Amino acid sequence: MPRVLLLESPHASADSVFAKYGIEVRRVSGALQGNELIEALSDVDMVGIRSKTNLTREVLDANPHLTAIGAFCIGTNQIDVSAANEAGIAVFNAPYANTRSVVELAIAEAIALTRHLTDKNNALQAGVWEKNASGAHEVRGKTLGIVGYGSIGTQLGIIAEALGMSVLFYDVAERLAIGNAVRMRSLSQLLERADIVSIHIDGRASNAGFFGRDRVMAMKEGAILINLSRGSVVDLEAVRERLTDGSLSGAGIDVFPREPNANGDPFSCSLAGLDNVILTPHIGGSTIEAQESIGSFVAEKLVSYWRKGLTGLSVNMPEVDASPAPSARHRVTWIHSNTPGALAHVNSIFAAAHANIDAQTLVTSGEIGYMVTDLASELPESALTELSELDQSIRLRVLHRD
């Protein structure tokens, strides 16, 4: 029976998917790291993580038997994808499943911070009645600057416009403006005009420090900063400086440079205790709806890869979504280095073994090639050995029909 280890408590919807196909599920509620993680992976075929578990090269090199990794979240910067490629381990994530949840939190924080609801709440919690309009505004008529105009940024812009806001966006990639959103050709232009800046960029290494001190200082007087992306992106000390001197009117921070591995662990942040600041524990995508959707989505991807070799929406493998041919008895999947002549090498081996090929697909992406071959006949063990020993071979799997 195949086994999957789920760390950091993905939604139980994942278990239902695995159970349907006879895959044993093991769970650990928090994150694991280093040697503890290496040991936990020693007898499982697949692993599912969220944002805290780091699948480093050391961890993957120690567990080359792993077939697939599921990130039950958007980001995959906690996974050494290069090491996964070298080991032929497929990586999957949930790039769209929690988009709405992140957008709703950004809108909620924009309204709460613009109305200074945090200050009003703090005063009442302390037993002080402070009914006044000082510093409180509507978001209608304000300018929202979106940094990172992917699936989250575009949906955020649509909802912001519906609330009567003007929307500017900046992205290093070419993006089509949705609705009345206006693209800014430089981030400095956006920062000069935006009353609220909401950051939605990914966690790739090159984005570390992207919104550093210079960009925090370039924000418009009285603006609000919201970061629901990655903790490594924003210089929180610079944010604190501008909040303390009153030149920023508020901040909503959901992600931090260092985050605890498990609930209940101690946490500290330099923005704690400041007026008009919302600090949340990395919950941008943490709604029941989003987590249920992510759980089933990623589990389905892992199961489809395990059973059929399908790689649709894989983070690192060339995409093959072709179901097995109806008459096929076996499906041979071959991950290999993308070198000339790979197809000819493989088919010469198939021909010598008198294999009856029903269907064959070869897709390459960067340095990786992925070949899927459906066979209507048996393939001798000697042929499989020959395939796996080719110089460009990374991983060979033989899948049998149910």
UniProtKB/TrEMBL annotation:
Its EC number is 1.1.1.399, 1.1.1.95. The keyword Amino-acid biosynthesis applies. InterPro entries: ACT-like_dom_sf (IPR045865), ACT_dom (IPR002912), AHAS_small-like_ACT (IPR054480), D-2-hydroxyacid_DH (IPR050857), D-isomer_2_OHA_DH_cat_dom (IPR006139), D-isomer_DH_CS (IPR029753), D-isomer_DH_CS1 (IPR029752), D-isomer_DH_NAD-bd (IPR006140). Pathway: Amino-acid biosynthesis; L-serine biosynthesis; L-serine from 3-phospho-D-glycerate: step 1/3. It comes from the Bacteria. Keywords: Amino-acid biosynthesis, NAD, Oxidoreductase, Serine biosynthesis. Catalyzes the reversible oxidation of 3-phospho-D-glycerate to 3-phosphonooxypyruvate, the first step of the phosphorylated L-serine biosynthesis pathway. Also catalyzes the reversible oxidation of 2-hydroxyglutarate to 2-oxoglutarate. This is D-3-phosphoglycerate dehydrogenase. It comes from Peptidiphaga gingivicola.
